[in-house]
Amino acid sequence: MPSKRNIQQLADLKDRVSKAKSVVFTDNSGLNALGQSQLREKVVAAGGEMVIAKNTLFSLTFQDRMTNDELRMKNDHSTFNIQHSTFLTGPTAVLFAYQDEVLPIKVLAEFAKANERPIIKGGLLGNSPLSAEQVMELAKLPGKLELLVKLMQQIQGPAYGLVRTLNGNVQKLVYVLQARENNLRGGVNHDG
Question: Is-above-0.85 flag for pTM?
Answer without folding.
Answer: no
